[in-house]
Automatic annotation (TrEMBL):
Transmembrane segments: none annotated. Residues 117-318 form the 3-octaprenyl-4-hydroxybenzoate carboxy-lyase-like Rift-related domain. This is UbiD family decarboxylase. Coiled coil: none annotated. Residues 324-452 form the 3-octaprenyl-4-hydroxybenzoate carboxy-lyase-like C-terminal domain. InterPro entries: UbiD, UbiD-like_C, UbiD-like_N, UbiD_Rift_dom. Residues 18-97 form the 3-octaprenyl-4-hydroxybenzoate carboxy-lyase-like N-terminal domain. NCBIfam families: UbiD family decarboxylase (TIGR00148).
């Protein structure tokens, strides 16, 4: 079977897992406990170079076949596979393959409305009422100081705009509540899902929600990144796949549920129905404060396949489960957005993993006029694809590799005058999970735009860089491949 044929054959998480196993990209761990051991083993794995996916089976207290998958997209090969771009991509090839793709997918999304089907694998088991218990599944406690067990980490939470009917999918953390009969849904106020919930509350006093906890990892990609306003994440996923996503309708809410989901739930949110949630080890690398009341979903239905697989994506101090995926996707989306905004000379963008794929952006430009570097920095700092929780935007010249943190810092140290080249923007879009936010304070943040380009007034006379040309490096590497690594 050809590379693309193999990718086209992926229809669900099981198909994805079968191909990843065939490629030697999956390691299985048996006998781990849901209480912190799955989380700790996953964390140790994220720190490895190009970590494999981990599949946990025979989890203590649960029968064989009730599995948890982590690190699904923690390297270039599996992320490229998930995005249907190829099965043999390295970091550089993945970035090249993604050029202009996010913009194309967004533009074509409307051509792939979801396809409603009567039934699907997710309806192999339907559990209703008091019998619906999330703790029948091996839901992990991911971090040692978490406030509970989180079934929603690699999830896709579905809400709908009551006015336009546009569907949104978001990856919001969900903690199991009430001994498995409910789950809190922690949605940041500025997210599309939160706006939908507020609209439903204003119109009807309650908001319908469905959520999937195991699915093709592509749904985690689209739920966890900022798809443009007005574009349904499931239609965006359809554009990536080149075919519509099959959904069933929830029996209670009528909202879509991916037909091939492993586990899914549905229910209603009410303004006054809240449970204490947290703390939780978040993508900033800190526990996000203490417990606070969060909107909570009473589970009306659980749908699940036989022997379902949970897709886990726990955050934490980078590198964490989805920091690589977010870095790649955010970088491509921000680069597309800068080009579409009309900014000339964009050579590259990278959202660094050290900042969780959000807080530290490097933008490389070929300077063409006075003020070009600052324009790039200000635009990147506030683009919808980049604005949430951004802290630092560093603009570098085209000779600096924006993916290399070492190169970016070198440019800052040698081309930035701290008194002249660092601008700050105040009261910008922050987050409740920011460890710098004071308790009960609004989630503002401050961000810096750092001009690490050669000064425009000295661009022709600035000292040349002391390094060999690419041609010379290529020549010596070819001449002594064994000593110099064989390739460059």
């Amino acid at each position: 079977m050809s590379d693309m044929a193999s990718l086209d054959s992926i229809d669900d998480l099981r198909g994805w897992l079968a191909l990843a196993e065939k490629l030697g990209e999956v390691k299985t761990i048996t006998g781990a406990h849901w209480d912190k051991e799955i989380g700790a083993a996953s964390e140790a794995n994220y720190k490895r170079p190009a970590p494999p996916a981990l599949l946990f089976d025979d989890i203590v207290g649960h029968r064989t076949g009730q599995r948890v998958l982590t690190a699904s997209m923690s390297n270039a090969r599996r992320l490229g596979m998930t995005l249907r771009l190829g099965t043999d991509l390295d970091d550089r090839a993945l970035v090249e393959a993604l050029r202009s793709k996010p913009g194309e997918w967004a533009a074509n999304a409307s051509r792939y409305p979801v396809r409603e089907v009567e039934t699907g694998p997710v309806k192999e088991n339907v559990v209703a009422g008091d019998a619906a218990n999330l703790l029948d599944f091996p839901v992990p406690q991911w971090h040692e100081a978490d406030g509970g067990r989180y079934i929603g980490t690699g999830c896709a939470v579905f809400t709908i705009d009551p006015g336009t009917g546009v569907l949104n999918a978001g990856a919001y953390r969900m903690q199991v509540q009430n001994d498995g009969r409910a789950a809190s849904v922690n949605i940041e106020a500025g997210k599309h899902g939160a706006a939908h919930v507020r609209e439903w509350f204003a119109r009807e006093g309650r908001a319908p929600v469905t959520a999937s906890f195991g699915h093709d990892p592509l749904l985690l990609v689209v739920a966890g990144t900022e798809v443009p306003t007005g574009v349904s994440e499931l239609e965006y996923a359809g554009a990536v796949l080149g075919r519509p996503v099959d959904v069933i309708r929830g029996e209670v809410t009528g909202l879509p549920i991916p037909a091939t989901s492993e586990i899914a739930v549905e229910g209603w949110l009410y303004p006054d129905r809240r449970e204490q949630e947290g703390p939780f080890g978040e993508w900033t690398g800190y526990y996000s404060g203490g417990a606070e009341p969060v909107l909570t979903l009473d589970i009306e239905r659980i749908y699940h396949r036989d022997d379902p697989i949970q897709l886990g994506a726990p955050p934490g101090k980078p590198p964490h489960d989805y920091s690589y995926m977010r870095s790649v996707m955010k970088s491509a989306m921000i680069q597309d957005a800068l080009i579409q905004a009309g900014l000339p000379g964009v050579e590259g963008v990278w959202a660094h993993e050290a900042g969780g794929g959000r807080q530290l952006l490097a933008v490389a430009v070929q300077q063409r006029y006075a003020g070009h570097a600052r324009q790039a920095g200000y635009l990147a700092a506030q683009l919808p694809a980049a604005a949430y929780m951004n802290k630092f935007v560093v603009v570098v010249d085209a000779d600096v590799n924006p993916r290399s943190l070492s190169d970016v810092v070198w440019a800052m140290c040698t081309r930035t005058d701290p008194a002249e080249d660092i601008e700050t923007m105040r009261k910008t879009w922050g987050s409740r999970v920011d460890p710098l936010r004071e308790k009960d304070a609004p989630p503002f943040n401050t961000r810096a735009v750092i001009d690490a380009c050669r000064p425009w007034s000295r661009i022709d006379s600035f000292p040349p860089v002391a390094e060999a040309s690419e041609e010379l490096i290529d020549r010596v590497v070819r001449r002594w491949p064994d000593a110099l690594g064989g390739s460059w």
